[in-house]
Amino acid sequence: MVLEDDYFLTFMQWLLPGRQGIGALGWFMIWVPIVALLGLLVGFVRATLHYTARDGLASGILEGFFAVARTIDTAVKDLSQTSARRTFAMARLAVQESLRRLVLVVFAVFLLFVLFAGWFLDVNSDNPARLYMGFVLGMNNMLLLLLALVLSTFSLPSDIRNRTIYTVVTKPVRPSEIILGRVLGFSFVGTVFVVVMCLISYVFVTRGLNHEHGVDPTTVTRQTVDGASVVSGQTTEDLRHVHTFTLRDGQGRTDIAHGHWHEVEQVGEGENATFVVGPPRDTLQARIADYGRLRFLGRTGKERATAYNVGKEWSYRSYVEGGTKSAAIWRFRGITPERYPEGLPLELNLRVFRTHKGDVEKGIVGLLKLRHPDPAVNTESETFTFTAQEFQIDNLFIDRNLRAQKSDGTLKPIDLFEDLVDKTDGSVEVIVQCAEPAQYFGMAEGDVYLRARDGSFFWNFVKGHVAIWLQMVLVVSFGVMFSTFLSGIVAMVATLATVVLGHTVDFVTELATGEVPGGGALESSVRIVRQMNVSAEIDANVGTQLLQGTDLVGSNVVRFMTFLVPNYKELSRTIAENGPLVNGFDIFNTLLARQCLTTFVFVGVVVLISYFFLKTREIAA
Amino acid sequence: MATPVSEVLAQAAPAAGENVVIETRNLSKVYRDFWGRHKVRALKALDLEVYQGEIFGLLGPNGSGKSTTIKLLLGLLFPTSGSALVFGKDALDVSKNERIGYLPEESYLYRFLNAEETLDFYARLFDMPASVRRQRIADLITMVGLNWAKRRQLKEYSKGMARRIGLAQALINDPELILLDEPTTGLDPIGTREMKDLILRLRDEGKTILMCSHQLADVQDVCDRIAILHQGELKELGRVDTLLKVQDVTQIQARGLSKEAEAEIREVIARHGGTLESLENPTTTMEELFLSIVRDSEARPGRRVREGDKDRSEE
Ligand SMILES: Nc1ncnc2c1ncn2[C@@H]1O[C@H](COP(=O)(O)OP(=O)(O)OP(=O)(O)O)[C@@H](O)[C@H]1O
Ligand SMILES: [Mg+2]
């Protein structure tokens, strides 16, 4: 799972300047004037062109200026007179319209997909939960955006083409109400769909992963160990996997296979005993994790912000070198006996980078200890060892009753909360090292955490659909905006373009800053034609400089456009393949709140822009 | 035929200085294409006033700018120059729509709604209590005679049925000013008759009506004043009774004169003899007036009305 730095910000840290540069509010302050200025400019140019055609350039400019001023004046009046009643009437109409159009077809297609999906999904996957959820979320996201696209972009243009709009705008309806009514109406239809699809796919996922095992009697062996009867054996193969299990005195559980385990119970005694395997456990989880702040120590034990880059193209994780003083230090806060009465339920999800193969089956040994954050106190616990396996979460429960090494080498008992936790902020440090020389552990802030509780998977699933819902609302608003001045199909393509752009913001930014190998559109076309490798030096003559210059301008224009469209990729990060939901982690409520706020700001601005488009449009021309 | 018209006109002679509901000043419209290039000059410097409580008819051949005028008055089009005022407000001001009803030239209604839903939708755009809304919807559906089809979607409606619902829609807010673009097209003879009666009834309730129509007989029946447009220019404007009066002809009806006396009739009348039963100017029909103006305009393009006005005021 990938959790970028900003994932851990609280709402206020995100909003206000400080932690993340100028903060969201800062960006808002820059963004709004730019959009407003751009809008004024477009309006002024349009009006000036219009009046210049009539009266010539000089008075055209003057008239253009007055036209803009007049429009703003009426806009203020109109917006202040926007009525909930009329908006609601328009929204109702939008709903009625959707209900009597294609919408039901889309829904039927979705159901068909889900019904047949079971056939296409490869249940042999190591982690069927991930597979199912990835599929269902991707599908729901796509279908809903498609639905939003179709709903929102065809309505106004068809009203204008059929001239039904004549009978509407000659009623006391403000353009703002026409826009807002449509956005609300279509969003309402979309919401109903999100809810229904969320519920259906929840059932689909839980049903799809649910299965029963029997016990294969030929594999059952019985022993007596320390006076207790121990039974072990294997389950039957169901959903293409088998578990082994061990029972002690009739109670026990299976191992973890395909991301889950079962409880096993013995019924009856002796040779006639039968075994009952319970339902799958931990298939779908919503771990509520307590994350810490991460810093590193280098080979010599000096502090550094990041450790070592092992040459992987992506610098999300830092690597800690084995057999040196290199270490990763997490500082967890708010550790109290009330929250963790027994001790710390640590989970580690480390990447392993091997410079030599070693024993691939065995995993790499790591060292972990706890330390009081205040160097003056200078208390640390004994060292625990663990084996890190790639792509597997290691559980390590640290009991509150620990031992510390005294200066003479003997161990004395200490208490986690008394001796290791800093009372002022309840913080404690967890230090992770790699024990094997020349092997590396890759770690990012979200890779070691305290598993505070398990949240409800259902609500987490719902939260994931909130992310889809937000995108749906955005697409609806953009669709309605484009449909105020473009015809249906063109408006749809334009809206689609904003979605594509919003999904590739990162790429476009890299393109514009020259970080993408092979250059921009023109340069890479030349490379393709000349069959050149992306990293091959392109000869620096005037032609190629011109090419690269054009690319730079082009990609910066596109980059500026990304500034104007919502970042859909950011909105779908919680439901992405490497996001929290699919990997069984609870989605941060603050992140959801941030996304909601961003979305609503966008929707507000888009509605305002649409108002101006519609207001200045000559309906009957 | 002339009698009912003159009766109608007698009741509602708009006096000068009465409330002006619609006022256009130098109103012009040039349709442009996407690139701002000049396409059609649809309306040329129209000056018009419509007073409260009158039925005003806009006449003219196809493409003469009647619908354009109405759309300008509604704010559906932006004037190229000049201004259009409705209730003293600019035509682009949305708040004037509270008091306006509009029946477009064709029925531009939502085909996926049924009659009741249609009226319900439009009614919700006005500030009226739910009970009033429901009552008015029921009344209007009864008035336009569609009770039998009120649950059917409009896409199943015939042209005339859609037209009737369009009229009901225009009256949903009990408007003070009603703009009717060819109200009788598509209606059967009974519907046409009902429409005319309705227009007169609305006028009697004190409402103002601006209509355009090609049914000259209908215009002659209901309109108090008319304007005739040709190629975007105002060609004739005035009271229907005045316009239809043939000024230079006198019609005499007499009884009890012998055959011999008939020969001397002009002489006798000149000397104020005989029993004069009627002495008046004969009226022409609207159709003849219309055709003569259009033929005249085509023969001599340019502004005709101004001179005509002057001529009449001198008489
Ligand atoms: N949207 C438009 N774009 C371009 N030209 C238009 C448009 N609407 C009308 N016109 C032109 O403007 C002129 C006046 O049209 P208008 O619709 O006002 O005529 P009308 O008097 O209502 O005719 P009719 O009796 O046929 O309804 C015509 O030449 C017409 O071609
Ligand atoms: Mg017309």
Note down, in words, how this protein is organized.
The complex is a heterodimer of chains A (621) and B (315). By secondary structure, chain A is an alpha+beta fold. Among the domains of chain A are: 1-81, no CATH class; 215-281; 289-454, Jelly Rolls, CATH 2.60.120. Chain A has helices at residues 11-15, 23-55, 57-80, 84-99, 103-120, 128-161, 164-169, 175-209, 416-420, 457-483, 488-503, 505-512, 521-529, 542-564, 568-571, 589-615, and strands at residues 215-225, 228-235, 244-248, 251-254, 261-267, 274-281, 287-291, 293-297, 303-304, 318-321, 327-332, 343-348, 351-354, 364-371, 384-388, 394-399, 401-405, 411-415, 428-434, 439-443, 448-454. Chain A has a 6-stranded antiparallel beta sheet, with no helix packed on it. In chain A, strands 9-8-11-19-14-15 form a 6-stranded antiparallel beta sheet, with no helix packed on it. A 4-stranded antiparallel beta sheet of chain A has the order 7-21-12-16, with no helix packed on it. In chain A, strand 17 (401-405) and strand 18 form a beta hairpin. Chain B is built from 12 helices and 12 strands. Chain B has helices at residues 2-11, 66-74, 115-124, 130-143, 159-170, 189-204, 216-222, 240-244, 259-263, 265-270, 286-299, 305-314, and strands spanning 20-32, 38-51, 55-59, 81-86, 89-90, 100-103, 177-181, 208-212, 225-230, 233-239, 251-254, 276-280. In chain B, a hairpin with a 2-residue loop joins strand 9 (225-230) and strand 10. In chain B, helix 3 packs across helix 4. The interface between A and B is medium-sized, with 34 and 36 residues. Bound molecules: adenosine-5'-triphosphate (ATP) and magnesium ion (MG).
